[in-house]
Amino acid sequence: GRALSDVEEQLRDRGLEPLLCPTRAPGDAEALAGQHAGADLILAVGGDGSLRDVAAGLAGSRGTAALGLIP
User: Fold this and answer.
1) pTM for the full model?
2) Per residue of the chain (71 residues), what is the pLDDT tens digit?
3) Which of 4, 10, 36, 66 is the most buried (most CB within 10 A)?
4) Rounded to an integer, what is the distance from CA 37 to the centroid of its chain?
């Protein structure tokens, strides 16, 4: 939606190249975080459930991505 487009624009304005990976089903955030754990930064956009799922995906990987939250 619009909020996600605003976040993407703000990240690009700061010289970052975001890859947006929307979730569609339970478990998607955990799987996506694990797949992209080699990124420099993973931002979870949502609430505590989204953050928990992304953190679980990172914890189960060998990646070194930093984790951030945009509520």
Assistant:
1) 0.85
2) 678 889 899 999 999 999 999 999 999 999 999 999 999 999 999 899 999 999 999 998 999 999 999 98
3) 36
4) 10
At position 24, the amino acid (one-letter code) is R
Up-side HSE of residue 18: CA atoms within 13 Å toward CB?
18
User: CB–CB of 23/32 below 8 Å?
Assistant: yes
Distance CA 48, CA 2 (A): 21
Name the residue type at position 30: E
17: which 2 tokens? Answer: 């190249």
Tell me how far apart the alpha carbons of residues 11 and 56 are, in angstroms, rounded to a whole number.
24
